[in-house]
């Protein structure tokens, strides 16, 4: 909120941004674990949708604030207060989360995990699978085509997302000549529909209890629309 805007040169700014990135990495790793707690209360895809909406809502907050606070012509010294506003919003949300978010107690979580593990073992035995052999070399079990290719595919898809986050505004301003204010206004629609999409698709996936059709339609649709967008 205040350290980054006070950077005196580009190297200080880069180093401070690097530190922020480390903290963001911690949050992005820790928060998916909460899905394990949420999934028994809602469907797994719905829980994933709500989690995915977090970073997207962050981008939406940024563009909403910018499109409503920046003038049409932005003076060079005006960028700092955007960090102040979004930083303050982040601190408020942090306070709400700190006092309002309730995790499952360790006893209930352990009971839940034991129950889920027992169910998986029962289903595996029912299919005639050798559970002992499956657990003997767990890492080798993961190095399968369907797992590795899916991980690579998601990573490549996220390149588009990270490019949109980092350079979407610059793209609209330099290629199409949008003002900073109007470019942020257009990105409001981009991130707004993204938020609706991740939650709605998650709910629909849980409703019909299938995943792959949504993955195929979403993947082909994303690739097609990215080319059209460019």
Give your account of this protein's structure.
The chain is mainly alpha-helical. Helix content is 80%, strand content 0%. It contains ten helices and no strands. The protein has helices at residues 10-30, 33-38, 44-69, 80-100, 106-126, 131-136, 138-142, 145-175, 180-208, 212-229. It is globular and about 70 Å long. 10% of the residues are buried.
Topology (elements, then pairings):
Blueprint: H1 10-30, H2 33-38, H3 44-69, H4 80-100, H5 106-126, H6 131-136, H7 138-142, H8 145-175, H9 180-208, H10 212-229
Report the biggest beta sheet as strand number plus sense, adding barrel if it closes.
none
The total strand number stands at: 0
Q: Give the overall shape.
A: globular
Average pLDDT works out at 83
- The share of residues in helices is over 70%
**Tally of individual helices:** 10
Instruction: Give the SSE string.
Output: HHHHHHHHHH
**Which spans of ≥5 residues are poorly predicted at pLDDT below 50?**
none
Strand content: under 5%
**Intertermini distance:** 33 Å
- Rg computed from alpha carbons, rounded to a whole number of angstroms: 22 Å
Structural class based on helices, strands and sheet pairing: mainly alpha
